[in-house]
Every structure is written in C-alpha cells, then in structure tokens.
Amino acid sequence: MSRYQLKHRHRSTAATQASPHAGGPSSGPLTSEELQLAGRNHSMPLEALREDITPAGLHYILTHFDIPHIDAETWSLRIGGAVSREIELSLDDIMARPAVTTPVTLECAGNGRSLLKPRPLSTPWVLGAVGTASWTGTPLAPILASSGLADDAVELVFTGADYGIQGGTEEPFARSLTVAEAMRPEVMLVYGMNGSPLPPQHGFPLRLLVPGWYGMASVKWLASIEAVTGRFEGFQQAVAYHYLQGPEGPGLPVTRIRVRSLMVPPGIPDFFTRKRVVEAGPVMLRGRAWSGHGEIERVEVGIDGEWMPANLDPPAGDFAWSGWSMVWLATPGEHELRCRAMDSSGALQQTTQVWNYQGMGNNMAQLVHVTVR
Amino acid sequence: MSRYQLKHRHRSTAATQASPHAGGPSSGPLTSEELQLAGRNHSMPLEALREDITPAGLHYILTHFDIPHIDAETWSLRIGGAVSREIELSLDDIMARPAVTTPVTLECAGNGRSLLKPRPLSTPWVLGAVGTASWTGTPLAPILASSGLADDAVELVFTGADYGIQGGTEEPFARSLTVAEAMRPEVMLVYGMNGSPLPPQHGFPLRLLVPGWYGMASVKWLASIEAVTGRFEGFQQAVAYHYLQGPEGPGLPVTRIRVRSLMVPPGIPDFFTRKRVVEAGPVMLRGRAWSGHGEIERVEVGIDGEWMPANLDPPAGDFAWSGWSMVWLATPGEHELRCRAMDSSGALQQTTQVWNYQGMGNNMAQLVHVTVR
C-alpha cells in the first residue's frame, strides 16, 4: 500500500454528500468531467453481443483511479485480520491450486446511467458496460478455510492496489462481502481471462470474481483480504454503490445484477447518430440476456410496442448470459425496437425509468430506432 | 461487399456539407451522439504511456461503422483494377510471406478534438487516441509489384469490410494512397498485434499499416486493394479527413502525424475530476513523444509556464514513440504542468489552439493541473 494511504487517509462525509461527485444528478448538459470518464472507461460495442465470449479488448472496463503497474514477480496476496493463521501467497502459489475456467458475465452497476433524467454525475454509461469473459482461477473458499476464520469474523475486506480520491475520501479501492457470500463456491481468485493472463486493465495479476454481482464486487489488482469483526465502512462499500432517492443514506446496497437484455443493433449504422438502416424483409434480431437473481426465463422483443417472444438459448454458464433471437419481418418505414427479459425471480425489465440518486442498476429496456427501406 | 453497397451507393454532397455530422463545430454542450461515440471508441488511459508497447485492450480504437464479424477461413484479399495480374490471397498465403514485426505508434487524426473551441462534432476525443503496438505482417510493395501495376495507375484504393452511412454517403470505409506512398518499404499488411492475431476491433484478420500516418490510413478489415488511374473520391478520402476553415473544401488532406508529446499524469487522481494530487519533493515526470514528420529532437516540460528540457530516450522503433523523463522538485501549492515536443522538421507543439473545422491534428500541448501537498 502506498505512502499516501498511511499519511493521508481521511474522510469528509459532509463534502461527499454535498458534492455532485458522489453521484448527484444534473439536468444540464454533459460535463467535461463525464466526458473524460467516458473516454477512460470502455464500453462494449453492442455488435460484440454476437459473441458468446467477449474478446478481451472489447469487455467493458471501469477503473475508479489509475490502472496500477504491478510486477507479478514481487506481488503477493496477504490474508489476515480475524484469522488463526495469516497467509501470504505468491502468484505461483495461487496458480498451483486447483484451477477452474468458467464464463461469467460482468456488468457495471452504473450501466444505463446516462439515460436517466435527471442524470446522476459519474461515468456516463450508455448501455455497453457489460461483457462475458472466460475466467480462470481458483475458488476462494478453501483458501479462506485454510486461514482459520475467527468465529466472530463477519466480513472479508478485499483491497485493491488502485488508490485515489473519491467524494472527498482518499482510499484504495476496497469492498467487503459477508463471510457467507465470500464462501460461496463460485467466488474465485482469477488470474486468467480468455486463455491469457489478466490484462492490466482487468486487474493483473489477480482479481476477485464474484459471479452474479455487479462488477464493483470483483475487486481488481487484489492486494489483501482481511477478515473483520464489524461491518466495513470504506467509501466504495458504505457511500458509493447504494440505491438512494437523494443525497442522504443509507439506502439499500447494490449487490446482484438486475435482469437485462440487449440486442445487436440490426442493419447498418450512421456514423454520427448510430441510427440504423435495415432492408425490408426477414431480419434476424439477436442479443443476450442475463440476471444475477436467477435464470432467464423469457425474452420478448417489442416492435412498435407489440411484444413477441424470442427464442432463448441455454446460458453460456451458470453465471453467464443467454443468447436469444427472433426473426422480424421488417416493413418499410420508421420502427422502434425494444427487448426485455424476465428472470426466475419474477423480475421483468421496465420500459420507463426507475430513477435513483447514484444512477445504479438502471435496467430499463433498450430502445433501438430503425429505418426500414 | 454487402448487398447494401450494390443497391444503395449514393452521395449527397449538399447534405454532407450542411450537416454537423460531417464535422461542423458547436459551442453548445456535448451531445448524446458524441457521448455514444465516446463510449464506443476507446481512448488509451494516459497512465499506459509508461509502457513501450501498449497492451492490446488499452490501444485506442476508432471504428466508423460496426466492427465486422469475419471468418478467416473464407476471407480473402483481392488485388485488382489497373494491374496486369489480379491476385486473390488467403490469410495463409499472406502469412507464408516474409514476416516483419515492428513497433509502430498510431494516433487518431481527431485526437484532442474535444478541447477545441468551438468543438467540431464527431468523436469527442480528449487526449488518449493513441497507442503503440508491436505489429506483425508482411511488406505490401512486393505484393503490389507481383500484381504488375499498370503504368497509368496513380493510386491504390484500400477498402475495408466495415460499411455504413456518414455525412449522407453510404459506403464501405475506404482510403487511398498514391503509388509512391503505398510502395514505401514500411507499409505493411498486418495480421498480428502484440504477438497475437489481430483482435476483431483492430481489423481481424488483416489490416493495412501505414507507419507515420494518422490512423485512418491504416484501413482495417481489409477486403480489397484496387489500382486506379484517377484520384479516389470516396467520402473518407475526399470529404472527411481534411484541414478546413469552414464547411467548403477542398482544404489540405490529413496525412502524417503531427508532433505530439504526452505525460503520465503524476500522483493520484480524483475519480470524478481526474485532478491530480502529488506529494511535495522530487517527482519523476515521464511520458512519450512522437511525430510522423521526423525524429523527436527535443521534449520540454513547462512548470507554471517555465520550460525545461526533458531527458529523451531513443525511439522504440523508426515509427514509434520515444520515452522522456524529467525530475520535478514539487513545491506545495497549485501547479500547471505541460509538455511539448519538437521534431526534426522543426515543428513544435503550440500552447494555444490552431482550430480547424473537422477538428483534425490538434496537437496543442497537454495541460495537467496538479495540487502539491
């Protein structure tokens, strides 16, 4: 951990809550700060929805601070706190453990934020803050078990090497999970992505992977895991990533991914507007649907407000998206296409916004304008 | 080439010139169209300037239309037009030819566009539309020679598989080079990037690489090369990518990369504003400098308006950036840092904007605001 943290860790809750930087809304135009964040934090272009596994350079990225430069040779992961045996693991130690490779869909909790009115001020995602990679790593639970978690340990705090200031608070990026969530069998420490070492922007050399949860839980550049006997109150856990109706908390924490479907925009684009032009006749519409709350049970496509069921493929994995498709008989004129999914918890995407103060979990159904000729 | 081109190729110069989509300026707020383009087209985060070779997922991307999905097994490159022998090459044919691997810096001609006032309406790059990859491919000249270019051939037209509408014109992305430029020994057909096959977003399975030129010349998803006996008048050649003072052409075409330097922002960032906080004392400032017009001769760092020479490393390759560094003795307070480079043609980056209508080649010196504590 850098000298900054030791010397300057501080917290200004008043500043945080009053500042738009903590997620306050704006009805004004997009700011230069938001533009900088849009340039740094990559969306997945929606045509990449055609791929089961998103090519690494097309997977979305959200990096709160700078991408750290880490030497894997000298890096290690420290596991301590309320444990009977502190552990320090090298990357070789972790790679020598039983390996699992599995496709997992990750989505940023802020996906869709820029479409909310008024617009919460943070990374102004449109709809592409998603991706599915084939991750390789080792389950976390046996490692935690070998450390001897104390009986009074209630959470694990996962701390990354990325470090900076957000909402007046200076901290490394850190998130916690309850012991029960952290011990789930699908939670992993991962070092591989699509058959290669993690790229720097995805957490090289090691990140946490929490399938089913929005991406903030899958802490990148993992430096330490600390068992704690009280609730972790770091900024990214206690202030950011909450469903709020105004600047005052506490609100409900953001956890699992809300059900969503997206479609590959059909036909050809206009460069500037991204509006689509399609030839009349049968058009294969297709996309993906996913949820952290259960299996996808149904996907429907709306053509000018009339909903029709799509064909649904089996999911690419227990925590990965499902493909869907539907043939649309396109007739000349202007059309509005939508898609919406329902998961096994009964949650269904809405076509009107469900606003919140930080712009979290906006799974409003996608709308695609198409000119058929 | 798709059926769209055959049936609907058309051109509306009036619409193109009148439309802001062709690059007209705005003094108004950022539009939702620009935001969509910022989300699709990835910048390189400036902390990646510390790497000689940019990791593939961090290299900038500009895709005018959709990223095409190409099956390398059935793909081929057709070379025809004013040649004595038409050629069709498979990927295996091209990979069987002599291979060269070389680092080359590519930059989008629109890099820095969003900093211009008024702001030309197109992809609103801040400063990160750059990257250096290690490219693997084979020189183009021997292939052209084997096709028997006609004596009256004046240009080669390079056409990609990406297709759509821009400024009222519906076309595949296509650019030309004069025969003399195309025959330069450094011009290559490339199929590898950083030791892997080209990622889809960088032109899989094959792209042109024109070292020294802005990125638009290095046509991706290359489908055909056609020798022509007149000047190519496609949209991306004749309308886009020109230095203009207003909507009327012709202006000068955009060709080689203007001299530029950038620095790794020092210290730690604020998440939202990206403003930097630095500890007082010696701070190693570093970055990269490059030019398509000659070697980098000098890099200077400006601290609150006072310019000092930086140390300059040898370039990473004949057409790749050079590292630079300088120790700054940071004193508490607010500071403005800049860097500027001069190349062997005598061109020097300016600290005031040199505006043009499409926002091309804006190499105004970077400005970094730093708080030292």
CATH topology of the largest domain in chain A, by name, is Sulfite Oxidase, Chain A, domain 2
CATH H level, superfamily name of the largest domain in chain A: Oxidoreductase, molybdopterin-binding domain
Report the radius of gyration of chain A as a whole number of Å: 21 Å
Please identify the structural class of chain A as seen in this structure: mainly beta
* Main sheet characteristics of chain A: 6 strands, mixed
Q: Any guess at the CATH architecture of the largest domain in chain A?
A: Alpha-Beta Complex
- Describe the strand arrangement of the main beta sheet of chain A, using strand numbers: 16-17-24-23-19-20
Taken as a percent bin, the fraction of beta residues of chain A is 35-45%
CATH class type of the largest domain in chain A: Alpha Beta
Mean pLDDT rating of chain A: 93
Share of residues in helices of chain A: 10-25%
Tell the overall outline of chain A: globular
Number of alpha- plus pi-helical segments of chain A:
7
Oligomer: homodimer
The most extensive interface between chains reads: A-B, 65 and 65 residues
Total domain modules of chain A: 2
What is the total tally of β strands of chain A? 24
Q: List the uncertain runs of chain A.
A: 1-22
The span between the termini of chain A is 59 Å
Biased composition (Basic residues) (chains A, B): 1-12
GO molecular function, one term (chains A, B): molybdenum ion binding
Keywords (chains A, B): Metal-binding, Molybdenum, Oxidoreductase
Cofactor (chains A, B): Mo-molybdopterin
